[in-house]
Amino acid sequence: MDKKNVLIVEDDLIIQHLIQICLKNLGYEVCGTAVTGDEAVAAAQKTKPDFVLMDISLSGRIDGIDAAREIKANSDARIIFLTAFSDEKIIERAKKIHPAGFILKPFSNDTLRVALELAK
Fold first, then answer.
1. Bond before 49 cis per omega within 30 degrees
2. Which of 67, 75, 64, 73 is nearest to 41 (CA)?
3. Which of 37, 108, 110, 114 is the most buried (most CB within 10 A)?
4. What is the DSSP string of 25-67?
């Protein structure tokens, strides 16, 4: 497998670190991290990731769904939402940007692996 670059957008630094470890164990390259939607958009423009693992609930001007919309408008990155929230309004908003995947927290290494493989 060619190494694929992943941008992690997660405001919980412990979860962010766990995702980094998992991705490295799966053979992926972490090209950057962000904790807000604005940081995610800027990081995606700079690093040109293949995948973005995007938390939905982020502090700041824009949430993860709005950040994902901006990233998709300017790149070919595949967005995979990684969130603890699955209420109907959030799902409907997320569906509108056609993500490559949606993972509910808590997640497992296998869940992350399968989502990334299916998003290729």
1. no
2. 67
3. 37
4. HTT-EEEEEESSHHHHHHHHHHH--SEEEE-S---SSS-HHHH
pLDDT at 3: 72
Distance CA 65, CA 18 (A): 22
pLDDT at 100: 97
| Amino acid present at 46 | K
- Classify the C-alpha dihedral 81-85-87-90 as positive or negative: negative
The pLDDT of 60-66, averaged and rounded, is 96
Tokens at residue 58, please? 């982020």
**CA nearest 76: which of 98, 61, 105, 94?**
98
Task: Give the CATH architecture of domain 5-108.
Answer: 3-Layer(aba) Sandwich (3.40)
Give the 3-state secondary structure of residue 72.
Answer: helix
3-state SS assignment for residue 77: coil
Where are the chain's structural domains? 5-108
Q: Do residues 77 and 7 make contact, with C-beta atoms less than 8 angstroms apart?
A: yes
Helix axes 88-95, 64-74, angle to 10 degrees: 10
